[in-house]
Amino acid sequence: MIAFLIKRLMHAILVMFVISVLAFAIQDNLGDPVQQMVGQSVPESEREEIRERLGLNDPFLVQYARFARNAVQGDFGYSYFYREPALEVIARHLPATLELVFAATLIIVLFSVPIGVYSAIKPRSPISRLFMGVSIIGISIPVFLTAIVLIQIFAIGVTVTLFPESTGWGAWLNAFFSTEGNMPSFGRGYDLVNVVGNWDTNLATWNGLQHLVLPAVSLASIMLPLFIRLIRAEMMEVLQSEYVKYARAKGISMRRVYFVHALKNTMLPVITVGGVQIGTMVAYTILTETVFQWPGMGLMFLDAINRADIPLIVTYLMIVGVIFVVTNTIVDLIYGLVNPTVKLTGKPA
Amino acid sequence: MSTTSNSSQASASPGRWERVRDSYMWYSFKRDRTAQLCLAVFICMVIAAFASPLIAPTNPYDLAQIDIMSSELPPFWIDGADDRYALGTDAQGRDLWSIVLYGTRVSLLIGFGAVILQALLGVTFGLMAGYLGGRVDTILMRLADIQLSFSTLMVAIVVGALVKATMGSAFYSQYAVMMLILIIGLAEWPQYARTVRASVLAEKNKEYVDAARVMGLRSKRIMFRHVLPNTMSPIFVISTVQIANAIISEAALSFLGLGMPETHPSLGSLIKSGFDYIQSGSWWITLIPGAVLVVLVLSINLLGDWLRDVMNPRLYKG
């Protein structure tokens, strides 16, 4: 276990090193910081002096060492746009994104497990077929399109006039398919509760929760079908295995066989995939936050790109890198803990 | 997709058509209504998209044919529609039907181009990793692992953003098609590399490989002429999924403003430009290209599902 931990740690450090070199190379090659700092009228000799003072003429490795030393101490430089330390800007936007991801994960877990298990137990039932059909459609809809459709239906409203208004059932059907569209679809709302530091939460008030619903559902919509299909496939495989047949033969209640015996082994690959999908989730937060103007890290990153705010872009990449590396390492550790058959130190088969 | 794989299966010269007709794939295709429908839809869309200069009533790239006065007209089933524009017009007064046709062509072009690039990179690296093994394998697969753990979309967004920031938006939008093919191709090659490597590992200890080696063939020839043909079926299966993914990635990048410019829109940039007008009630500008995108991706995905079921013998039992 300790050997595995050390190996994973070395791997994580190596990955972070690569990311930081890339991030530094980006910072080094994009834009001229001196040009950002001084006006047009400053003569070249003075610019050269500033360059020398800032150490911009030093060799690449010396500059990288300085960058890495500062980064380890939490100093990523100043954002050009916000005129404050880039890390502080990120820290201010982080809670919004984390709450969004948390809410989406909650939706995914709450729906994917029961639906996946049900459609594995009863693969031929019409409800399972419906779920599978809907889930492949769900995979084919890009997250921003789901978000736009949700906005149209629940925030703007749809007035259906497809059925003849004169007949009673026509009017009823029209009313049934029309929506009012009073859900908020823009930002985090006015009713945020400060928890600690710069963490304002959406989860404490009704208004906050309302603002959270559409973005969270959009973000969940892209992962939910994937997990439903994954859980179903794994569960169906597990249900074929000998130990499930044996448990059944012993006369244990079916519910116990399904939810205690089978589900445990179903969740193993789900954990790994879930860990990998966290990376995808961060990518999708950029899209979701753009559609809903959710003031999180993703929207901030996109704004930073449009403003060519290089220190902020670099800091975002580093922080996201840290998030990926940490979650992947934790997932590997959990996987090792819940599945003792995995050879932790050995090479994967 | 399936026609090409059919013909590749039946490579022998006598009775090529007979072999296709007798194959399990054709048998399964004949019985699968969903696959037939999806293939029909997909082929129709590809033909319509690539024939768009002939089919489309207007040329959306030609500024002389655009009339700003007729902007935001609704599609034909809504009151206030104009007969000239069956699906309505967008915010610049471009005919939505024409621009969706042209946009589908751009999306398909980028999707196919990116997948070809991914396949070239991924198959080469996967073959090398699987066949040569050792240090090459470790380095390539570690690289693939790192890239995959970041998710391909994230890599594409970051690379797109950086390229755009370095080169400036004007340059970027001028070469947007090439840029997107490069970005998506570079971001997604690990999928191919992994699949190919796995099947190469399964193939390389078989006797025909030993025989070829004993005959003194160079490893490059063994890799590409002997091992590669036997790893084709998983490549076909992931190719369909990868085309769908590439089209979605392109749409996502365009939606973020890192893709096709509005003057040469793909489906993604049409959705993006329409999204600005959704609050004013013109939902069709964004939702019609959106629906086309979903139908396109869905038909590819369903074809991929069918292909996987046909080509994966493990699933016969279930």
Give me a quick take on this structure:
The complex is a heterodimer of chains A (349) and B (318). With 349 residues, chain A is an all-alpha fold.
Overall description:
The complex is a heterodimer of chains A (349) and B (318). Chain A has 349 residues and is mainly alpha-helical. Chain A has one domain (1-30, 76-338): MetI-like fold (Orthogonal Bundle), CATH 1.10.3720.10. Helix content of chain A is 72%, strand content 2%. Chain A has a two-stranded antiparallel sheet. In chain A, helix 5 (86-121) runs parallel beside helix 13 and helix 10 crosses helix 11 (254-292). The longest helix of chain A has 39 residues, at 254-292. Chain A is flat and about 85 Å long. The longest helix of chain B has 37 residues, at 96-132. Chain B has a single domain, classed as MetI-like fold (Orthogonal Bundle), CATH 1.10.3720.10. Chain B has 16 helices and no strands. The two termini of chain B are 25 Å apart. Chain B is mainly α and 318 residues long. Chain B is 72% helix and 0% strand. The A-B interface holds A 15, 18, 26, 29-30, 136-137, 139-145, 148-149, 151-152, 156, 236, 240, 276-277, 279-280, 282-284, 286-287, 290-291, 301-302, 305-306, 308, 310, 313, 317, 320, 324, 328 and B 146, 148-151, 153-154, 157-158, 161-162, 164-166, 244, 248, 251-252, 255-258, 271, 275, 278-279, 281, 283, 286-287, 290, 293-294, 297-298, 301-302, 305, 318. Chain A: Belongs to the binding-protein-dependent transport system permease family. Chain A: It is a multi-pass membrane protein. Chain A: It comes from Vreelandella glaciei. Chain A: Its main location: membrane. Chain A: Residues 94-335 form the ABC transmembrane type-1 domain.
Oligomer: heterodimer
Give the integer mean of the pLDDT values of chain A. Answer: 81
Secondary-structure element order of chain B, as H and E? HHHHHHHHHHHHHHHH
Number of strands of chain A: 2
Low-pLDDT windows of residues of chain A = 344-349
- The backbone outline of chain A, from C-alpha atoms, is flat
Strand content of chain A: under 5%
